[in-house]
Specification:
By secondary structure, the chain is mainly α. The protein contains four helices and no strands. The protein has helices at residues 6-27, 32-52, 57-83, 89-118. Helix 1 (6-27) runs antiparallel to helix 2 (32-52). The mean pLDDT is 96.
Length: 121
């Protein structure tokens, strides 16, 4: 039986949420911020998928680090959408928890991968 891949599953589920949020924002006539959110929010899962087939451990770490940067950018767009009142408290609190969790998982993967590659410091 295949082992569950938490980051792969969570980043894909998050991307689906982002697509649905994008559709909601477009209905509210918000096009610029929503497009940025769509790009960065779906890139996380795509980079995680790319990392599955990394050419080396350094390549894996690099791809995960880029995924983390996209997650940080996504958190920025979510915060901006909330502060500009496109998202209400409930919407914001729900999705910001997801991106914070993804950020923590990615950070943990990167740290563990670096320790395996370079040894504990």
């Amino acid at each position: 039986m295949k082992r569950p891949n938490v980051i792969k599953d969570k980043s894909f589920a998050f991307a689906l949420r982002i697509v649905k949020l994008y559709q909601y924002l477009v209905e509210k006539k918000e096009f610029v911020l929503s497009k940025q959110l769509l790009r960065s929010g779906t890139a996380i899962g795509a980079l995680v998928r790319e990392a599955e087939h990394a050419e080396s451990s350094a390549d894996f770490i690099h791809k995960m680090a880029i995924a983390q940067k996209e997650a940080n950018e996504t958190a920025y767009w979510i915060e901006l959408l909330f502060q500009s009142e496109y998202l209400d408290n409930s919407q914001y609190n729900s999705i910001i928890l997801d991106i914070q969790e993804l950020n923590k998982i990615l950070a943990s993967i990167i740290i563990t991968s670096k320790e395996k590659k370079y040894g504990k410091r």
